[in-house]
Amino acid sequence: MNKEELKTRLQELLPSPAFEEGAEWTTVVTDPAGWEGFAWDLRGAEGLDLDYLFCVTAIDWKTHFMMVYHLTSTVYRHTVVVKVKLDHDDPVIRTVSDIWRTAEFHEREAFDLFGVVFTGHPDLRRLFMTDDWKGWPLRKDYEDPVNMIKL
Amino acid sequence: MIQEVGTTEQGDLVINLGPQHPSTHGVLHLVITISGETIKKVEPHLGYIHRSIEKMCESLSYRQFIYVTSRMDYLSSHINNHGCALCVEKGMQIEVPARASVIRVLMDELTRLASHQLWWGAMAMDVGALTPFFHAFREREAINDIMEETCGARLTMNYMVPGGVMADIHPDFQKRVKEFIRFFRTKIDEYDELVTGNIIFKSRMKGVGYLSPESAVSYGCTGPTARGSGVSCDIRKLYPYEVYGQLKFDEVTAAGGDCFARYMVRMQEMRQSLSIIEQLIDNIPAGEFLAKTKAVLKLPKGEFYSRVETARGEFGVYIISEGGTTPYRIKFRSPGFSNLSALDHMARGHKIGDLVAIMGTLDLVIPDIDR
């Protein structure tokens, strides 16, 4: 599907989608409520079949967090980017590791470095940092006087 | 915290492989639950070489951050640099000169060869054959010498920069590469005679570590790991960059899904890389090797994503820019990270010795996973 067709299809699945213009791929912004159902639709809905989640990451925008999911269909070769806006004080989102298995590690990374909590995740622990590490290193307000060198 | 040593309630033994172990090729730590010799669970522990490169990049300029990326997948450092340069060029809309484009592809393919050579030697060593390691390193040395002449480095190249390449190729480059191709064509047949047909090797590899095409996609596996399961995922073919679209080469896939299929994919890929280099080595266009760019690079506000095919799979660079001289956030989608996540799925039910073979065919580079 091309960009316009993808937009139309996504509009059918999501009540009031917000699209970001000017991006390379069709980019849709949504909120964590209803994310679970929408994620299942992205994976399984007729004509979408987005089976390959190739990049999952979080962005700290200081006022809110943005979870970004890059999805491609290995059948149709179209790409959709989904962004989910999370509250900065309480970033909680439902896991998608049961839909795309690769999300299990990627979500652990986002939890480890941003402190985003994924409900329903089978094994939500720190991935790179030690278990007793304090703080979330990739957040913009993170300070570490020992290990960080300011340039 | 998970249990790291001892016996579980079911009477299974929990043992550790690594972080200091010859078969993990770096500081990978696996906590393995075994019942007798049979693996019930594999739990990778990461972070021993985590340098938080993504955080570092937030305070480095668009010319500087490329140097750090050589330190991720150090066996594909050219290709890492390439992915980053492509992303900056996409944002700045810089046109790369034709000469630079061809040099980049040549370097990428030489890197892929060198990486696969090291993998082949280490792979054979993992399953108990020590000799191939020395063969592989002898041939790899020839590529390193070629790289050294042009780039001044043997491992962390930092040769590709936004706008092209840092310096023109060495006057002897074409001659040396042609010599290498002649030399390596005979050696790769020798590789096959030495290892591929070996009955012990085959029995260690066949039917071990099966990964179905559906699982490969779901786990986000790319590169030879996924292509060994018959999944077409070569970025060079699907989303051609530089001159890959004009070249004649095949995307190598194998249907087996086991260790031997992944092994065969890499062996064939080496031949494809040789063919790509042969097509280009006499056709390097004359002209500039570096486009004229501003001294200070500023990416416009927005998001840019570029993807390249490293020796291990799809490498993605995702830059979020606020319009400044440094990225607001940068994310590296490393192929090894996703490939490793499938290890538990592939290893369950096999013996400990097979785990080493499976890890070998995943071709893990730990700094690429930890970043």
What do you see in this structure?
- The complex is a heterodimer of chains A (151) and B (371).
- With 151 residues, chain A is an alpha/beta fold.
- Chain A has helices at 3-13, 35-44, 103-114; strands at residues 18-20, 26-30, 52-60, 64-72, 79-87, 92-94, 117-119.
- In chain A, strands 1-2-5-4-3 form a five-stranded mixed beta sheet, covered by helices on one side. A two-stranded parallel ribbon of chain A has the order 6-7.
- In chain A, helix 3 links the parallel strand 6 (92-94) and strand 7.
- The radius of gyration of chain A is 16 Å and the shape is elongated.
- Chain B is α+β, with helices and mostly antiparallel strands.
- In chain B, 47% of the residues lie in helices and 13% in strands.
- Chain B contains 15 helices and nine strands.
- Chain B has a four-stranded antiparallel beta sheet with strand order 1-2-3-4.
- In chain B, strand 8 and strand 9 (329-333) form a beta hairpin.
- The longest helix of chain B has 29 residues, at 98-126.
- The A-B interface holds A 22-25, 51-55, 57, 59-60, 68, 70, 74, 77, 100-102, 104-106, 109, 113, 125, 127-131, 137-138, 150-151 and B 1-2, 46-47, 50, 52, 54-55, 59-60, 215, 217-220, 222, 231-233, 238, 302-305, 314, 316, 318, 320, 328-329, 331, 333, 337-338, 340-342, 345, 370.
